[in-house]
Amino acid sequence: MLAAAACKSLAPALLLLFLGYSGITSAVPGDVAAAAVGPAATGLCQEPVVLEPGVSSVHCISPAIRMTPGQVININLLYPNPFPADQTVAIINQTAQLIHVADKLPVTPNEVYTHHFVTVDTLMVPPPTGQGLMVRPAFSEQHRLLVPANMLESEISRTVNIHLINTLGVEDVASCIECRCPPELELKNGGGVLCCTDCPSTSLRGVIEYAMEYTTIYRYES
Fold first, then answer.
1. If you average pLDDT over residues 202-219, what whole number do you get?
2. What does pLDDT average to over the chain?
3. pLDDT of 165-187, one tens digit each?
4. How many CB atoms lie within 10 A of CB 102?
5. Alpha-carbon distance 12 to 130, whole Å?
6. What is the C-alpha to C-alpha distance for residues 103 and 187, in angstroms, rounded to an integer?
């Protein structure tokens, strides 16, 4: 219980840390850098679907993320708000995964490795959300995190730092996704986010568009 409370209290601080840092490791060449995310894009959420009285499900998609084979990006996205603005709700469950924008099919981990994504705990849970590939399955048990009305009005509350590693055509995938450091920058653990740079790739594919999709199930609180 104490550990969970501590993580929850750290969520805003972790997000601010990543927001200030994220530009350092974004190794995006030339014109692709300017097109990494659409201008001022916020993605979209579909209309809520009522599952049972008082319980609704909302499906959302983030702004498009453009990557090339072997590219590593660490960027900030403005996610759409899946919650009603006029009533407090309790999050029951949530799933998230990376998809291809073109066909909406899931992206396999051997194409793009989701290193992490970090946000405040009222947008995506568990707090703070930094689990990367671990959020693909649904939660094993129900959550009851309360989201007050108007909680996500500010942009900072809907900003997600996401770190993706495209491994298409990459021969040494392990070194790539482990972000191994060269000897002159080697950390105590031999790797880390500071050493995540573009990986050599033999793939001839051009720019590919991805997006993060997430589905939230919530219950209205009286």
1. 91
2. 72
3. 999 999 999 989 988 887 777 65
4. 9
5. 12
6. 40
220 membership: H or E segment, kind and range: strand 208-220
- Supply the pTM of this predicted model: 0.71
Distance CA 76, CA 212 (A): 12
- Kindly give, in sequence order, each residue whose CB lies less than 8 Å from that of residue 130, ignoring residues fewer than 6 positions away: 14, 116, 117, 118
Report yes or no: 72 and 25 within 8 Å, Cβ to Cβ: yes
**Rounded to whole angstroms, how far apart are CA atoms 136 and 138?**
7
- Dihedral sign for Cα atoms in the order 203, 205, 206, 210: negative
List the chain domain ranges. Answer: 2-220
The percentage of residues in the chain with a pLDDT greater than 90, rounded to a whole number, is 28
pLDDT of residue 173: 94
